[in-house]
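hiii, so i know i said id send this last week but things got crazy w the move. better late than never?? heres the sequnce for the chain we talked about at the cafe, plus the structure i predicted for it. fair warning i was half asleep when i ran it
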Amino acid sequence: MTDAVAAALRKATGALRGAEDRPSQRDMADAVAAAISGRRHLIVQAGTGTGKSLAYMVPALALGVRVVVSTATKALQDQLATRDLPALAESLAVPFEFAVLKGRSNYACRQRVRELRGGGDQLSLEPALFDTSSSAPGAASAGPDSGLGALGREVRRLAAWAETAATSGDRAELDFEPSDLAWAQVSVTYRDCPGAGRCPSGGDCFAEKAREAASMADVVVVNTHLYVTSLISEGELLSDHDVVVFDEAHELEDIATASLGVELAGGRFASVGRMCRALLDDPAPALAVEDCAKIFADVTGVWSGRAIPRPLDADSADRLTLIRERLARLSAETRRAARSLSVEPASGGATAQTASGGSPAATSARFSRAEQALGHLQGDFETLLGASGDDVAWVEDTPYGPLARVAPLDVGARLSELLWSKQDAPTAILTSATIPPRMAERVGLAAGTFDQRDVGSPFAYDEQALLYCPLHLPDPRDPAFEGAMHDELVALIQAARGRTLALFTSWRAMRLAASEVARRVEWEVLTQSDLPKPALVARFAARESSCLFATMGFWQGVDVPGSSLSLVTIDRIPFSRPDDPLLLARRAKAGQGAFELIDLPRAAAMLAQGTGRLIRSRSDRGVVTVFDTRLARARYRWALIGALPPMRRTRHLKEVEDFFAGTRDAPGSAGQTAQ
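okay and structure toks below
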């Protein structure tokens, strides 16, 4: 480590409350500094408690490079923006500017808000805004919200917030959680935004202001989906940068897979059709595309839960061809209507009024937005129809209907093409508490272009934590498993006196366990359904004896140090679904070693993330329980155990009870291996 980096790290850590020396943090900072100086990629596993955000940020700032931090979760993005970076700015002598950049749909759209404020066709396209059936008696009978339903009043509240002087338009700033439908009325996605140059409100656009701030910042915090999307987006979303840090890098492969693919549901056709219908004298072409929502759902629903067959049967091919023809006709009619009504881009000074009655500038923006959305829909539809052997196309069943997806079979090859192999590619730091095996190969980093380190963790897991696998439970595939697991969970919660984070691999299992356990224990049982995640975690942390039951979204990004979290339970080893079409295709490509190459590393990484919720400080003590007996019996168990922190292991409930009672070294097998 250079003197400048070492001095900066001492200054940054010295300013922290309860400052302590962390050798693993120094080791990581040393490796990051070497990677930046040598322009060589780095993969670094940094166990919980390392303080990895300082370990990568301090070298980057001390060496004067421009860095983009790409996070997998909003929780980490918010932590960096509200805690870590402001603290660094205060403690370091090195001046720097930082910014947070999110996807366009995270910001309110001032043009949409102004159109809503003006009423007219844009508002009337959403009849639910005026549905008063769910309103309290008399709630919508008078005043400024007269005639509006619950959704309409929510939208009006969002519009008022978006027009306040102090807001940045970021949804995260709201003091309430809006419904997705209400937020959709005041925001746009990248698919239907025409860009600042073609929008009347482009000069004071929230998203554009965020991009402008990011372009001038030394440190930019984004989410990984946005970073990968920027690699393929038209125009430069992120300014040139010297270093990119992928924090929570174990998620990179999956996020890149989703970001480099497309998703298409019937609702897209209905939405685009409605958007265009408001602008056309003859609504027939738009109505025809709206009708495609049902056609598309009917065709794709047949393949729900499996890959789309190639070649298509004749009937499916004919109906999808009909959709393509209707999209082409609507595109032609929308362009013709724009020309015939003399609608020009907002910067062109259009003066004509339109059939919809809107102002020229507003109508111009609507045409631009409709053409943008229609173009993206056509592009995604063609991607679905033209999926090659390098892609996997399949259909998922969702509460809103069939969702067709296309994703690259080999995401590493795509990342190599778009990022790693470019001559001006930034130096990449990939870090996580859990680095899956063969990660470099999976994300496309070529051998010889990177270094890999494991700096360990500052925590004494062998003293602070116990791993319990109750071998007397049935196999998790046995029908008797859930009842026996509930009994064991009750006994564990009683031993821990509440203070439990119970993690589940499905919503069904979580709800069933919460209902069963809540009636048998004296402590409060919270569930993931009760509150938004930040508020729920805060309530769990504040009420020391409470229990929190949650699904996969809580296996990471939950940081509750102290006695409020003394027991983490996991219902099953988190193996991916065996019938997942994308993984089926990857397994087929991998051949006989597919389980060891694909399924086992994914499960091990997620299991390690879940167990990592327990020990968050040097003073924490607690127990991790995995109810799945395959952790102790399966031939592959050591691959799973090896990915976990080095906790002592037991198979006996009595030793767990002694641990919570303070008898850490009770006679028996508390230090034995669960085999």
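btw The chain is about 45% helix and 10% strand. thought thatd interest u
miss u guys!!
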